[in-house]
Amino acid sequence: MTHFLLISMTQKLVIIGLELGALNKLKQLRLDDSSIDKSFLHMVGVLTSLNVLTMSHCGFSGSLPAQGWCELKKLQEIDISHNHFDGILPSCLANLTSLQVLDLSYNHFNGNIALSQLSSWTSLEYLSLSNNDFLNPISLSWFFNHSNLKVLLSENNKIAFEPNSHGGTPTFQLEFLVMSNCSFDGLKRTPRFLQYQYDLQVVDLSFNNLVGKIPTWLVENNTRLVCLVLMNNSFTGPFRVSNDIRPNIRYTDIAVNYIEGPIPANFSLIFPNLEYLNMSNNALQGSIPSSFGNLVSLWILDLSKNQLSGTIPMHFAVGCDSLAFLKLSYNNLSGQIFPTNSNMTALSYLYLDNNKFSGKIPKSISIVSYGSIDFSNNYLSGMIPTWMGNMSGLNLLSMAKNQLEGPIPFELCKLDLQLLHLSYNNLFGSIPSCSNLSRTEFLYLNKNSLSGLIPSSLILNTSDLIGLDLRDNHLTGNIPHSIGSLPSLRILLLRANHLQGRIPIQLCLLQTLNMLDLSYNKFSGPIPHCLSNITLKASFQEDDLRGLSSGLGSTNSFLPSLPYFETKYTTPPDEEFPRIHWGASLNVKPEAEFTTKRITYSYKGDILQYMFGIDLSCNRLVGEIPPELGSMSNIRALNLSHNSLSGPIPVTFSNLKQIESLDLSYNNLNGKIPLQLTEMTSLAVFSVAHNNLSGTTPDRKNQFGTFDESSYDGNIFLCGPPLQNNCTKMRPPSTMPVDNEGEEGDIFMDMGVFYISFVGAYITVLLGIVAVLFINPYWRRAWFNLIEVCIDTCYCFVVVHYHKLFNYRSA
Ligand SMILES: *[C@@H]1O[C@H](CO)[C@@H](O)[C@H](O)[C@H]1NC(C)=O
Ligand SMILES: *[C@@H]1O[C@H](CO)[C@@H](O)[C@H](O)[C@H]1NC(C)=O
Ligand SMILES: *[C@@H]1O[C@H](CO)[C@@H](O)[C@H](O)[C@H]1NC(C)=O
Ligand SMILES: *[C@@H]1O[C@H](CO)[C@@H](O)[C@H](O)[C@H]1NC(C)=O
Ligand SMILES: *[C@@H]1O[C@H](CO)[C@@H](O)[C@H](O)[C@H]1NC(C)=O
Ligand SMILES: *[C@@H]1O[C@H](CO)[C@@H](O)[C@H](O)[C@H]1NC(C)=O
Ligand SMILES: *[C@@H]1O[C@H](CO)[C@@H](O)[C@H](O)[C@H]1NC(C)=O
Ligand SMILES: *[C@@H]1O[C@H](CO)[C@@H](O)[C@H](O)[C@H]1NC(C)=O
Ligand SMILES: *[C@@H]1O[C@H](CO)[C@@H](O)[C@H](O)[C@H]1NC(C)=O
Ligand SMILES: *[C@@H]1O[C@H](CO)[C@@H](O)[C@H](O)[C@H]1NC(C)=O
Ligand SMILES: *[C@@H]1O[C@H](CO)[C@@H](O)[C@H](O)[C@H]1NC(C)=O
Ligand SMILES: *[C@@H]1O[C@H](CO)[C@@H](O)[C@H](O)[C@H]1NC(C)=O
């Protein structure tokens, strides 16, 4: 006799009614992860003894059948989560009066949960409605008679819980309540029924836009509370809890609210066993209480984006010896980082960026033996210590925007870094020719005073390099030809150095490059024709993207991960319930700057993929602009200004459909502006000023209607709107020369033609008037009267005109 049938894992099941009938004594049927035909649902009713039916991840879709399975009157547990069911719940479900566990999560159920059904499920202990499309408001008071209800999960629903209009008090005592990201329609206050709860262990009300004082009474009322998540609401007020000790609380996330005031000094007394504390994105003031050092279990602490001031207390640095993750970024903290030797031997992630820390980099941080360090945007001074080379497991090191000086120690080469960010310091000396940066993806050393050559060994050995930023230094020499051996390079920024020589054709091998900035150097010679090769393949695959955005985070296995809660509630309940797991992980996004539209934007993360730009401005480049550049159809910004480029503007540029900024100013370009350029419909900035261009300006259509004179300035032979030079005055279309030679002669010939036609027109008009006056005697009399009346005015008019004409000739 079969009482239990367990079918798990992915299996193809073919179940026919006959076989099912033989199983009529079956108590439990667990079919999770199987692929079952939906007709099974119509037949399952024959299993009249069934207590437990679980069918999660079975790929069902459509609505639940209204017959066939509602007859399972003995069912205590149903799990149909993670399917694609939609529609409303059939009303016959009200027959299932023994129901204790109902899991409908991760489907597309909508409509109302029929009230009749709810009221008949009086034995319900566990109800999960999470991640559905339940639409209509349910009053929570409908649950109030379910005295056995322990777990209520309803995150990511469109459920609009009604205000507590029915009043009354709930008969249940919940242990586990997750109502995150429910649009509490009309109810922006913490649900009132919570005030009657004293047995809660897990409360998650995040992403609800709740207002009012932060409900610290939840902590006070519920002595067994383990986990409190009130993240991303609009709670205000100080986080002050009465003096009772709450030894069970291990996880508190109240980030992204408007909590103000200081952190209570005896915080650690009240929450002695805290493991995870996230109070980031609030308005906390005052200093970090020294008593934090008593939080010996604390593993992850995030106080970033507040207004905390003062120093890191000494007691904190020695006491929290379990701390693995410390983020104090974006505060007003000052003083030395870890003035004493710290006992935080587990510390792997230390984010102290955007504060006012000063002094030298303390030896005490050498305890961070792997993970990440971000000290950027502080006032750290002194040299980069050589012992940092012994922090061998370090993955990300950012000390940008400080006042560090001296050379980059060769010892740093020993680190197996993915990111080294030392920009905006006063570092000098040469770039160490590291030979083992094989894992380095981002090397940002811009805005220092580094000199010497770009070491070719460095480049040869960084095959994973994605971003190299050496802008604003004093580097000399050529771009090493080994640059072509960086197959993943997407960002190459060498702006404002003293680099020279030709632009190496090896750059053309970098087929994945997004941003190339060689401006403000002394590069000479022509622009390589093959340069167009670099973005030919620039259409990114989804996978490439993921690689980039997780560029710094592909270390996921090292990063501490965020907890999630295991809520699986089976009969009988799990001993350890509720359990905290550490699952999802953190991620850091890469960053790069690029100048386009004459403004420097900071591109972060995924947006990098959309940015394709080449800046070769302010060099000594000669020769013609390679027409091949017109095939870089993905390019968004191209700046070739301030060089000595000659020849015409390639007609092929009209293919640059994505281009937003094109600057060719301050060169020796000649010939006419191709009229097809108006096909560049994304253009926002365009300049060909200060060249030797001639002929007419492009039609004022599409984007070209928005460009003013400054786009064309300094080309004396250019005419047409928006310039003042009138093409018809300068050179009538009929006699427009087609060649570019004899520019000097052109203007004289044009003026000659102009005079001839002017005189011709004058005589014609004069003869016309005389003829009219001769024919009509009335007009003749009127005409001579008029002459007498305004003889003076006409005189002035002629004088003015003469002057204008004179001025024009001398111009
Ligand atoms: C059970 O559901 C059917 C509808 O499928 C309904 O006709 C019947 O009245 C229900 N029985 C009870 C006891 O609710
Ligand atoms: C709950 O029970 C009380 C009395 O037992 C009753 O008056 C009330 O209507 C019930 N509420 C619901 C929603 O069923
Ligand atoms: C909140 O729910 C909406 C849909 O209702 C969803 O798009 C969004 O991603 C959810 N937010 C979070 C943080 O889960
Ligand atoms: C919970 O706290 C609220 C507000 O302080 C209070 O009104 C209520 O009586 C408390 N409930 C319990 C069960 O202690
Ligand atoms: C907070 O939630 C809102 C929507 O509920 C969302 O737009 C916003 O990005 C969230 N803020 C953070 C910091 O997660
Ligand atoms: C915490 O400090 C407050 C005053 O700041 C005091 O009322 C309370 O008793 C203290 N709690 C403990 C546990 O010491
Ligand atoms: C703290 O909360 C913020 C806002 O939700 C989040 O971005 C951050 O990752 C959290 N910190 C940790 C360490 O989990
Ligand atoms: C940071 O501290 C300084 C004094 O040290 C103060 O002038 C400034 O207003 C503080 N800034 C913030 C955002 O609290
Ligand atoms: C580190 O902790 C131990 C006890 O765990 C203590 O004896 C020692 O003094 C601490 N170290 C420092 C530098 O305070
Ligand atoms: C760094 O490590 C080397 C060998 O592993 C050792 O000789 C040296 O003393 C260490 N330096 C410091 C400053 O700890
Ligand atoms: C550029 O691409 C063309 C065509 O794909 C190819 O023939 C040429 O060799 C490439 N040039 C370089 C330098 O890779
Ligand atoms: C240019 O000349 C034409 C014909 O002479 C005239 O219609 C037009 O208004 C002039 N444009 C400007 C900008 O002077």
From TrEMBL:
Keywords: Cell membrane, Glycoprotein, Leucine-rich repeat, Membrane, Receptor, Repeat, Signal, Transmembrane, Transmembrane helix. Its main location: membrane. The keyword Lyase does not apply. SUPFAM superfamilies: L domain-like (SSF52058). It is a single-pass type I membrane protein. GO terms for cellular component: plasma membrane. InterPro entries: Leu-rich_rpt (IPR001611), Leu-rich_rpt_typical-subtyp (IPR003591), LRR_dom_sf (IPR032675), RLP_Defense_Trigger (IPR051502). The chain crosses the membrane at residues 753-775, 782-802. It is found in: Cell membrane. Residues 1-17 form the signal peptide. Coiled coil: none annotated. Belongs to the RLP family. This is Uncharacterized protein. It comes from Quercus lobata. The lineage of its organism: Eukaryota, Viridiplantae, Streptophyta, Embryophyta, Tracheophyta.
